[in-house]
Write a structure and sequence with these properties.
Blueprint (H helix, E strand, L loop, with lengths): L2 E5 L4 H12 L3 E6 L14 E5 L5 H11 L3 E4 L6 H6 L1 H20 L5 E5 L26 H20 L3 E6 L1 E3 L8 H13 L6 E4 L5 E2 L1 E3 H14 L5 E4 L5 E2 H12 L4 E4 L17 H7 L7 H17 L4
Parallel strand pairs: 1-2, 1-4, 2-3, 4-5, 5-6, 6-11, 7-10, 8-13
Antiparallel strand pairs: 9-12
Helix pairs in contact: 1-7, 2-4, 4-5, 6-8, 6-10, 8-10
C-alpha cells in the first residue's frame, strides 16, 4: 500500500486528490490546519489526519519521519490572488516559506517524490504573440500570490539541483468542478443561478468582465495529472496542466444559464472587475502529454453541470 502525504487536503483540489488516492487503496496522510480549508477531511479507514502547520518546520520533519511517505503532494497554502494583496508577507511566508519547509522536511527524512503545485498565474500579463504559454515562457508575476508561487517553483528546482530530491513542479491553469468555494468564477455564477432557481434571489446575475478568456480544466483531470506526474514525470522539471484552449467568461455564463434553465438579467458589477486583468491566457499541454500521456478527458459541459448541481442541491435543501 503506497504511503502518501497530502497538504491542502481540505481544499478544492486536495479533496479530489485524496478521494482518487483512497479509491486506489493508497494510505493517505493529510496535513490538517484548524483555521484553513473549507471541506471536511475524508472519513475513510485508510485516511489519517495529521495536525500541523506549513510554517512549523520541526512539526513537518517529525510528521515525515513518522509517516515515511513515498509520495508527497503539496497543495496547501493561500489560494487567493485578491487576498494576497491584503497580507502580502503572510502569502509569501505560507506559500513560499511553507514550500521550503516541505522540501526541507522531505530531504532530511525519507526523501519521497514531491509534487509541488504552483500556478500558471506566475506568468502574469502576456501579449498574443506569447501564447500559448509553455514551460519556457518567462514568469512575470503581477500580484503577491503569483510571486509566492513563482518562488515556490524556484525552490523546487533548487532542491533538485542541490540535493537530487525527486521533486516536480505542477503549474495548473484554472480548474473548475464540484466543491469549489465561492470567490472563483464558476461557483460565483453557479451559486447565483442556483439561488435564483430556488426562488431565494431575484433573477439578476451579477458579473464582472465577460470578455476575458482563460484556460479551464476539470479538477478531476487536474488531480489525475498530479498522479501521473508522480508516476512518470521527470524530476526537477516544471509541467503546465491545462486544456490548451481559451474559453471566454461569457461562454461560461451562457452555458451555466442554459444548464440552470432560468431566465436572468445580466448586470455588470464594478466590484467584480479585477485590476491588472489579463485579457486572454492559455497554455500548451504538449510537455505533460509527451512525458505522461495526460490529456484532459472531462468535458466543459460536465464540469459546469456538476458544479451547478452541487449548488442547486445546497439551496434546495436550504443548507447554504
Amino acid at each position: 500500500m503506497t504511503r502518501v502525504f497530502v497538504t491542502g487536503v481540505t481544499g478544492f483540489a486536495g479533496s479530489h486528490l485524496a478521494e482518487s488516492l483512497l479509491a486506489d487503496s493508497c494510505e493517505v496522510f493529510g496535513l490538517v490546519h484548524p483555521s484553513s480549508g473549507h471541506l471536511p477531511y475524508p472519513d475513510h479507514e485508510n485516511f489519517t489526519p495529521v495536525a500541523g502547520d506549513l510554517s512549523d518546520i520541526d512539526g513537518l520533519k517529525a510528521a515525515f519521519g513518522e509517516v515515511e511517505p513515498e509520495i508527497v503532494y503539496h497543495l496547501g497554502g493561500i489560494a487567493s490572488p485578491a487576498q494576497s494583496w491584503i497580507n502580502p508577507a503572510m502569502t509569501l511566508a505560507i506559500n513560499a516559506g511553507g514550500t521550503a519547509n516541505i522540501l526541507e522536511a522531505a530531504q532530511v527524512t525519507s526523501r519521497p517524490k514531491v509534487i509541488v503545485v504552483t500556478s500558471a498565474l506566475l506568468y502574469g500579463s502576456l501579449m498574443d504573440s506569447d501564447l500559448p504559454v509553455n514551460e519556457e515562457t518567462p514568469p512575470s508575476p503581477s500580484h503577491p500570490y503569483a510571486v509566492s508561487k513563482w518562488t515556490a517553483g524556484v525552490l523546487t528546482k533548487l532542491y533538485w539541483k542541490r540535493y537530487s530530491l525527486p521533486v516536480i513542479e505542477a503549474r495548473p491553469f484554472n480548474h473548475i468542478g464540484p466543491r469549489q468555494a465561492r470567490g472563483f468564477v464558476v461557483p460565483d455564477f453557479a451559486s447565483q443561478l442556483a439561488k435564483i432557481k430556488s426562488g431565494k434571489m431575484d433573477p439578476v446575475l451579477k458579473v464582472g468582465n465577460l470578455q476575458a478568456a482563460r484556460d479551464f480544466t476539470d479538477v478531476r483531470d487536474i488531480v489525475r495529472a498530479y498522479r501521473l506526474l508522480a508516476d512518470t514525470g521527470i524530476a526537477g522539471e516544471p509541467y503546465l496542466i491545462c486544456s490548451g484552449a481559451p474559453i471566454s467568461i461569457l461562454h461560461l455564463v451562457e452555458k451555466l444559464i442554459e444548464i440552470s434553465g432560468v431566465e436572468v438579467e445580466i448586470v455588470k458589477d464594478p466590484e467584480r472587475y479585477r485590476s491588472l486583468e489579463t485579457p486572454v491566457i492559455y497554455g500548451s499541454n504538449a510537455k505533460i502529454n509527451n512525458d505522461t500521456g495526460w490529456l484532459p478527458i472531462i468535458s466543459l459541459e460536465k464540469s459546469l453541470t456538476d458544479a451547478y448541481s452541487e449548488w442547486s442541491e445546497r439551496y434546495s435543501s436550504e443548507q447554504a
